[in-house]
Amino acid sequence: MDELLKILESNALESPESIAQMLGTTAAEIRARIADYEKRGVIRGYQAVLNEDQLDLGKVTAVIEVKVTPQREGGFDTIAQRLSRFPEVRSSYLMSGTYDLLLFVEGRTLREVAAFVSEHLATLEGVLSTSTHFMLKTYKRLGVLMEQESSDERLSISP
Amino acid sequence: MNDSASLRNRLNPTVRDMPRSGIRDFFDIVTTMKDVISLGIGEPDFDTPWHIRESAIFAMERGVTHYTSNLGYLELRRALAAYVQKNFGAEYNPECEVLITVGVSEALDLALRALLSPGDEVLYHEPCYVSYRATVLLAHGVPIAVPTRAENGFRLTRAMLEERVTPKTKVLMLNFPNNPTGGVMGREDLQDIAAFACERDLIVIADEIYAELTYDTTHTSLVSLPGLRERTIFLHGFSKAWAMTGFRLGYACGPAELIEAMMKIHQYTMLCASSLSQKAALEALARPETDVAEMKTEYRRRRNFIVSAFKEMGVECHRPLGAFYAFPSVARFGLPSKDFALQLLKEEKVAVVPGTAFGECGEGFVRCAYATSMDNIKEAMLRIKRFIHAR
To answer: Which of A40, A91, B64, B139 has the most crowded Cβ, counting Cβ within 10 A?
Structure first.
């Protein structure tokens, strides 16, 4: 993968000037490459990685395994894309194994998520069954540990 | 009766008269201050990769808490011999040509004690690791430093060695990639040195602890050169590339006679390296490419950043090709490097190490380790810029 993308993936706020110094090029060049990635849709957005447990949002996240019948035309894609359009669905994946789609669904309350499953998801044509698991605690998201790692324990000067 | 002066007089004069490491003095000052950004730390900021730490925990659970063979676990010596053959280009018999030690520092001490008789001279380059001179003196040898220079990429040439070699010279000690300069030696440079060592019939101690950490170039090991394997003690360890400094694990490879001699000292003084660290090291060798590559990519970015930042502020800085140190010249500010470092510490709370800690010819330079987070480096460079613009 392009090193520029690796840097942005770990810190999207890194300035073009700094990235240029790290990669031995110019800030203008970095800006142009980022713009190109955005235009081509390789970079699809920039988000902060939040520790939501700290915010007391009272939010509920469910991980839902969904079994579906693939469509004659479009296979799994048609139904997966249809499901993905619901704003409640934060992430969705096609899986190998005992179920087909894995959805991460967010709601304000347990009831809200339950309603989404029973009204929108289970009733959708092609959905055979669902299995809903509620998340209890987040330890790591997007490669970031949610608990603060211990600070630098090194000696302040060493040979 | 036993007042401090009389106790002092009872000390071995070599130890009594030996100055403490220049790094130690500086450390004492820095620890009294708050909010210091330290570019003075000669160890990775990364923690040891988790799979390695996890294997040490597992080893402890299983009760791997006993002495190992003096040479170290045979399983680890086999893995090391394979690693050295693949990456450094020399074959060693794990039964009798590999010795596992408590860091490279112990291995260096063993090698010098095994080789030197009083008065034997040891040729080495400066700037160099802080322990070289002291370790030679403690082994009753005579340290003969050969100064290297920034304009030369801090490389050593045959001509420089010829100037200092005498009939008493027994050992040639080299450390590339180098701490503190980040200098490296290419294959051609080393071939000259190898020919010199063979002609003068010297034993070579090759401290290649930073071998994995080279940028824009590949490492050439001394032991891969013709004629050197049979006269070289190759030293390496896990501290730098695997970020395992606290595990204290190094090793020496060499001809059986030399390893056997080192083992004798090791068995009577250290007995063996930590069993847990040895198990961790075995795990480290399982997939070295992945572990090291990630950290190396990060070091390279930081190296580029720091060199470019010095350039922007008009400070001359040789481009380091290895290790994780930049060694910029601060001579133009007209201060001894120790004063420069002290003032920078007081005014801007940035810690760098005066070049003189690494030998007299380090005067005019400071060592800036980029083994710290990019955020710290950025902030440190802003502060250094402010500091020098006020001059």
So the answer is: B139
Task: Map residue B86 onto helix, strand or coil.
Answer: helix
Torsion of CA B47, B49, B54, B59, to 10 degrees: -90
> Do residues B135 and B258 share a domain?
yes
| Same domain for B156 and B210 | yes
How is the beta sheet containing B203-207 ordered, strand by strand? Answer: B98-101, B250-253, B232-237, B203-207, B169-174, B121-126, B142-147
Query: What are the Cα distances from residue B332, in Å, to B11, B44, B148, B150, B363?
Result: 42, 30, 19, 14, 12
Contacts of A154 in chain B (CB under 8 A): 41, 43, 45
**Structural domain of A126:** 52-137
How far, in Å, CA of A27 to CA of A19, rounded? 7
Verify that A32 and A90 share a domain, yes or no.
Answer: no
- A155 belongs to a structural domain: no
State the smallest CA–CA distance between residue B201 and chain A in angstroms. 32
Residue numbers of the domain that contains B233: 50-286
Q: Cβ–Cβ of B351/A157 closer than 8 Å?
A: yes
Q: Do residue A132 and residue A59 come from a single domain?
A: yes
Asked if B309 has any chain A CB less than 8 Å from its own CB, the reply is yes
Number of domains chain B contains: 2
d(CA B68, CA B264): 15
Do B43 and B74 lie in a common domain?
no
What integer pLDDT is reported at residue B331 of this predicted model? 95
Q: pTM for the whole thing?
A: 0.89
Q: Do B234 and B88 meet the contact criterion of CB atoms below 8 Å apart?
A: yes
Q: How far apart are CA B254 and CA A87, in angstroms?
A: 65
